[in-house]
Amino acid sequence: MTPLLKVENISKFYGHRIGCKDVNFDLYPGEVMGIVGESGSGKSTLLNCLAGHLDPDTGEVLFEMRDGAMRDTVTMSEPERRMLSRTDWAFVHQHARDGLRMNVSAGGNVGERLMAVGARHYGHIREEAVDWLGRVEISETRVDDRPTQFSGGMQQRLQIARNLVTGPRLVFMDEPTGGLDVSVQARLLDLLRGLVREMGLSAIIVTHDLAVVRLLADRLMVMKDGHVVETGLTDQVLDDPQHAYTQLLVSSVLQV
Amino acid sequence: MSDYNFAYLDEQTKRMIRRAILKGLAIPGYQVPFASREMPMPYGWGTGGVQVSAATLTPEDTLKVIDQGADDTTNAVSIRKFFEKTASVDTTEETAQASVIQTRHRIPEEDLREDQILVYQVPIPEPLRFLEPSEIETRKMHSLEEYGLMHVKLYEDIAKHGAIATSYAYPVKVEGRYVMDPSPIPKFDNPKMEMAAIQLFGAGREQRIYALPPYCQVVSLDFEDFPFEASKADHPCDMCGATDSYLDEVIMDDAGNRMFVCSDTDYCASRRKAGHVGAQAAAASAALKETAA
């Protein structure tokens, strides 16, 4: 089996400060990879380098294109990368406002990616939008409402629908449950887990919430000060942490 | 003898504007930045169109200026006077007589010829502006041909109103490449943009010039199941009886009476001169005869 994404020696510096350093991993189709670590450990920097939002200083991000060829997304031309990011890739922001058009209706938000890749039939676009709103548990009657009229949890679900509508193969998620209360978080996680399994998505999830990765991720990568300190299967890392920092992280979780 | 240089602007400025125009003609629909000058009129009154006209005019030209189709409204009259004073060119109200026509928000009803130039006044040249506030981003979208967002606007229209409710400044795609704002002309005029005359667009405040060479392909954006429709008021002109012209609705009194008249005053007047009479004009002349008898 060939990996979908091959990350080789990615480093990013902010002047003298380290963003992330020498990160290597492979992501296989259908696999969900969690990246955990404390604030400032370089998780988001790494994710943004992988998704093409930041230019890494060294390294390669090889992605398996639809024709089977591995292409370096760091050096590919901007039009190609932008095409990727609205077809095969999806990016779920922590704040739904960053990923949504707040002055465009829910249907328009979901339809945008379809129109961006050339859909020109209103009826079909709307059908698809309604279908996707249903899948993320937003009622069809809300299709013409703007995201400003939605609750935080609904906005986040709308953002997910908007991202998944073109059937991406790789989803980047930056703290998808941040800022939501626990019961809404639980429903969102349930939904995400269902979608990931159903669509066979590969995903990279950045979070500081260990419960999120426990539920969603197959494999885990622990970061500290820009370095990867431990990797392994999720249960293995969480139940038998080897590195001192991981032990601290796992033992810091409050038990209710 | 006026103390102004011919057509108000100095020669260097006119050369700069002409270079922008030529570049615009070479890349139809592309917005060319230019160093817009302050003109002796407020922004929003046609400073861009006036600069383009000034750079285009020669002493032999005949100028026509229209404002929403009319030759006799404030904007049209003052710009016409401006060029009478600063360029001493002949002016006319007849479309066929003019070699340069500056227009605000209309295309004349009469077909234009290859030896004519149509100059538009443009308030906001960027068709993506209200969807994407960042100029850096919109420029990137133009250069990468990412125009999906334009359809999001049309989608919103249908979702909200059941039809594409955008009735003016209706976005068009030029020669299969650039999406362009045709300035706030009614969408009734959009199909006319594939014409014999050169079309130049000037936006003074936004400092952009763009252009359409003759017989350029101009396609109005739409959906397969909601095709573009060049709509107008479903009524003949009450003055000249024309059924093919764009109409203004005029409210006559407090009782709700109204009339529809051609927005192109020259077109209406020439039709009436040729003997065409609309419903209300006929009724009025009949009433006049009765009082005289």
How would you classify the helix and strand content of chain B by structural class?
Answer: alpha/beta
Order of strands in the sheet with most strands of chain A? 6-7-8-3-9-10
Number of helices of chain A: 10
Helical content class of chain B: 25-40%
Give the termini separation of chain B: 53 Å
The helix fraction of chain A, in percent, is 25-40%
Query: What spatial form of chain A do the alpha-carbon principal axes imply?
Result: globular
The total of beta strands of chain A comes to 10
Structural class estimated from helices and strands of chain A: alpha/beta
Oligomer: heterodimer
Mean pLDDT of chain A: 92
> What is the terminal separation of chain A in angstroms?
41 Å
Radius of gyration of chain A: 18 Å
String of helices and strands of chain A: EEEHEEHEHHHHEHEHEEHH
What does the overall shape of chain B look like?
globular
Q: Please state roughly what percent of the residues of chain A sit in beta strands, choosing from under 5%, 5-15%, 15-25%, 25-35%, 35-45% or over 45%.
A: 25-35%
How are the strands of the biggest sheet of chain B laid out side by side? 1-9-8-5-4-2-3
Summarize the structure.
With 256 residues, chain A is an alpha/beta fold. Chain A has helices spanning 43-50, 78-86, 96-99, 106-116, 122-135, 152-164, 182-199, 210-216, 234-239, 244-251, and strands at 5-14, 17-27, 32-37, 58-64, 70-72, 89-92, 170-174, 202-206, 219-224, 227-233.
Structure description:
The complex is a heterodimer of chains A (256) and B (293). Chain A is 38% helix and 25% strand. Chain A has 256 residues and is α/β, with parallel strands linked by helices. A six-stranded mixed sheet of chain A has the order 6-7-8-3-9-10, sandwiched between helices. In chain A, strands 2-1-4-5 form a four-stranded antiparallel sheet, covered by helices on one side. In chain A, strand 7, helix 7 and strand 8 (202-206) form a beta-alpha-beta unit. The longest helix of chain A has 18 residues, at 182-199. Chain A is globular. The N and C termini of chain A lie far apart (41 Å). The N and C termini of chain B lie far apart (53 Å). Chain B is of the alpha/beta class and 293 residues long. The radius of gyration of chain B is 20 Å and the shape is globular. Chain B has helices spanning 11-26, 47-56, 74-87, 135-143, 148-161, 265-273, 279-292, and strands spanning 32-33, 62-67, 90-91, 100-104, 117-121, 172-174, 178-180, 198-203, 208-212, 218-220, 247-251, 258-262. The relative contact order of chain B is 0.15. Chain B contains seven helices and twelve strands. In chain B, helix 1 (11-26) packs across helix 2. A seven-stranded mixed sheet of chain B has the order 1-9-8-5-4-2-3. Chain B has a three-stranded antiparallel sheet with strand order 7-6-10, with no helix packed on it. The chains are: A alpha/beta (256), B alpha/beta (293). At the A-B interface, helix 2, helix 4 and helix 5 of A face helix 5 of B.
